[in-house]
Fold:
Amino acid sequence: MKNVKVLKSVLVSNKERAAENRKFFDRIGAFVVNVIASPGAGKTSFIGSVVARLPKDYRVLVIEGDIRGQIDSERLAQLGIDVVQINTETACHLDAFMIAQVLPQINGPYDLILVENVGNLVCPAEFEIGEDHKLAVLSTTEGDDKPYKYPLLFHLAKVVVINKTDLLPHIDFDLKKARAGILQENPCALIYPVSSKTGDGYEAVIAHLVKELDASKKTHTS
Amino acid sequence: MKNVKVLKSVLVSNKERAAENRKFFDRIGAFVVNVIASPGAGKTSFIGSVVARLPKDYRVLVIEGDIRGQIDSERLAQLGIDVVQINTETACHLDAFMIAQVLPQINGPYDLILVENVGNLVCPAEFEIGEDHKLAVLSTTEGDDKPYKYPLLFHLAKVVVINKTDLLPHIDFDLKKARAGILQENPCALIYPVSSKTGDGYEAVIAHLVKELDASKKTHTS
Structure:
């Protein structure tokens, strides 16, 4: 009988490539947040609102994922934000290999890299890209049942931003029910209701982010 | 040298399975619409609104696709609508094989089968399920740029329903821009702005659907 040797696959898995990306981000001292949401939940507005409110000494880069075009990149660049665009052509999510392709374009150092994933509440959650954590944006207009129906993202996201609270008087959205659905998936989730239109709620988001960034800096330099 | 025979794959493709599903739907005389949209765009409300307004002699079935749970099925069943539930567990779309699995549960005859796909503006468009055509629901709260950023669905959908027009006074949504984006992808798209909350615009949707159903009946019986 011949010896059968199990050889390690020559293909690097997404998980392995994500770990390599992570090493790169660690080297340049960047804290990386993977921003995931449905189309039109307000990912770009959220990112713009965060960068506008973050103390100016934090250096921020946005990696912008879109199937096609650069509508969001242009919006963010107009706000004076550094942006690297990825067009996935047909793919419904960003993966670690797409991120790896743009790393050579990142001329650090950055304190914070916000990755705006393709608008999709399902697939992007399945692919690690080398992020520190995932952040979900759920908009009130999508309905309070979404965490119950699309569990994976809410299971994995450390932070959930509930956006478009300014529209609450005009729609049926039960914040308590949404909260309960999120916490059912992840009892440790940090939930921040905000309105990117009025700016309501951003103070708490920024306070949290600054705490995260400062803790991350201590880890990097220790 | 050995002869190399190219054998036809024993695996049936999604396209082939969709063609089989289509034969089944033709046999029971059903016109099938694949309803696709982002999470929370209002697919279930749209379906409920259509069935409530359709003349009562049309027999309607809904095939309900969700990753998990049966929140939407229960909503529709409470309206007295026949529903068959598919839970995809993790899959981000319905495919022809999932539909095939529930065909034995369909005790026709039905004039119209509305398939509510998983909430996702990207992946469901890639999979035929045996439908007569795809119908996209775009909600105003998602933004007027969606047809530009998520082209495939708008390229393929014969009908695009723009939902939540009741919220137009409270948001920035340019109906002209959305229309132009849809028509850029598909110059023949039929676009119907509606509000499932107030019922505005449904008259035109129902008139179109009745025309489609009657034309389909003529084809089936000829």
User: Anything to note?
Assistant: The longest helix of chain A spans residues 202-221. The beta strands of chain A are 31-37, 60-66, 82-87, 112-116, 133-139, 159-163, 190-193. The mean pLDDT of chain A is 94.
